[in-house]
Amino acid sequence: MKIKGQAAIVTGGGSGLGAATARHLAALGARVAILDFDAARGDAVAADIGGAAFKVDVSDAAAVDAAIEQAADQFGTVARIAVNCAGVGLAAKVVNRDGAPTFDVFDKTIKVNLYGTYNVMSHAARRMLTLDPLDDGERGVVINTASVAYEDGQMGQAAYAASKGAIAAMSLPAARDFARSGIG
Known about the structure:
Layout: E1 7-11, H1 16-27, E2 31-36, H2 39-49, E3 52-55, H3 61-75, E4 81-84, H4 103-128, E5 141-144, H5 149-152, H6 158-179
Parallel strand pairs: 1-2, 1-4, 2-3, 4-5
Helix pairs in contact: 1-2, 3-4, 4-6
């Protein structure tokens, strides 16, 4: 897909890999919408690249849907590119020093990393399906980021590794779901 002139969504675009991705897409000529929980960071990157920023908790499906719709309204077109970089890496052993399970950390990590990726992927792809294919037959592309931690996680990374492994496991079947429709 030619990136120049396309609308793109980048989650977690206010910092780290997301910010680098947003900057790179903008440098290639994309109009980039940043979806980030940290409004100040998202706004700063958007201002630097001439994009748009939306404060969004990616684990909230309705908020994701609304932000993707707002981005489409602002850019005058549905995004053909969606990159999922949002994530949290909260470190916690399965059982803490006091002997208590750390389910709250596990739950938060799964919600942001896995559910957030699924929410953005599904809501972005739903809109991509409404687009006419480009000359090469593509309607859009979804990129989900995982981590080597799912294969080689360190102490305190059980939740993070589980979330990233689930993203990796989810991405191939999702790609198969979308392939016939021109979404890669």
